[in-house]
Amino acid sequence: MMRKRRQFRYHPGKFLAAIAVLSMAAIAGGPGSAADFPKRDITFIVPYAPGGGSDQQARRLQEGLQKALGVNLRIVYKTGGGGAVGFLELHSSKPDGYTIANVVVPNIIVTAKGENVGYKTEDFSYIGMTEQAVGALVVPKNSKFKTLKDLIAYAKANPGKLTIAGTGSAGHANFAEIVHALGIRATYVPVSGGVGKTIPYLQGGHVDAAVFASSHAAKHTTTITALGLAGSEPSPALPGVPTFKSLGHDGFEMATTWGIMAPPGTPADVVKVLNAALQKTVSDPKVKDAQIKNGLTPMSQTPEKARDFVLGTIKSVQRTEELVKTLPK
Fold it and tell me: Are residues 114 and 200 in the same domain?
């Protein structure tokens, strides 16, 4: 006796509804979604050498982020090009939330303007900014320049002889701001690898001075002296150090801001998970105390605010670039 075959009847409405349900399930539980994120370790790219501001930021946040996310945070260093090597590494990474990196403003803006650099400032998925420090002009502890007035007098008596170090193109921009504000001629010395490499260069007497975030000066007060701060207010972490403005040098304010970002196209729900972990971490009193002790102003932002902050800084960087063009060749 032959079995009667069951007839398959095609119902377009039911078929499309089933496809929609399956698609939504795939999206909700896909590898790049927050439904199962994170389920393995996350790589944190530091675009500068160990010991610098980005490394210090990553180390401050590491414990809290690991606790909030429930996975390990693996820190790796991808240095060179004033941060461009690390930024490009992140830009090329899979946008699934398992690779993140420091974002340093204005460095991310300045480096993105390089020829064939491979990324644009607006490409990245910004998670949040966490801390900020005003700029500082510093000298070795044993320097013959005991005050900013001493340094200016020497630079004016010896045009072009004063050497000031900085980190890559971003440091060059800060250098342009300082010499313009002080009315001096000096020679810029670019140091690749970040402030972690610049500080030994300064301590060894290879340059007369350097310009970088005041938080570094606060951390190395036994070997470095800050002569002036590029902010509107003195820093509690550097008592007695005057601002340029208080000494009659107006028109120059500089700040370095650190945050966290992810590759372009990282899903919004994954960014939201990372931001929630970041907010929880920076609200920890231990993290805030460490930031303040090191001359940093704590920050807490949504991804939207972080993106607005970064893109909103572009105009001020453009002004600085015009100053760079006026420097003697």
Answer: no
SS3 content of the chain, % helix, strand, coil (to 5): 45, 20, 35
Amino acid at 213: A
Last residue of a domain, one of 216, 236, 255: 255
d(CA 164, CA 161): 10
Q: Please count the CA atoms within 13 angstroms of the CA of 126 that sit on its side-chain side.
A: 25
Domain limits for position 145: 134-255
Name the maximum alpha-carbon separation found in the chain. Answer: 113
Per-residue confidence (pLDDT) for residue 26, from 0 to 100? 46
Residues 149 and 217 in one domain: yes
Of the residues 232, 255, 278, which one is the last residue of a structural domain? 255
Q: How many Cα neighbours within 13 Å face the side chain of 282?
A: 25
DSSP character at residue 95: S
Q: Provide the residue count of the chain.
A: 329
Count of structural domains, the chain: 2
Asked if residue 311 is part of any domain, the answer here is yes
128-142 pLDDT tens trace: 999 999 999 999 999
pLDDT digits (tens, 9 = 90+) for 8-26: 454 555 544 444 444 444 4
Token pair in block for residue 266: 């990282």
What are the structure tokens assigned to 233, written together? 């207010």
CB atoms within 10 A of CB 275: 22
- Do residue 98 and residue 244 come from a single domain? no
Q: For 127, list phi and psi in degrees, rounded to 5.
A: -95, -45
Distances (CA, A) of 77 to 52, 87, 281: 11, 11, 22
Query: 55 with 147, same domain?
Result: no
Q: Does residue 323 carry a pLDDT above 60?
A: yes
32 belongs to a structural domain: no
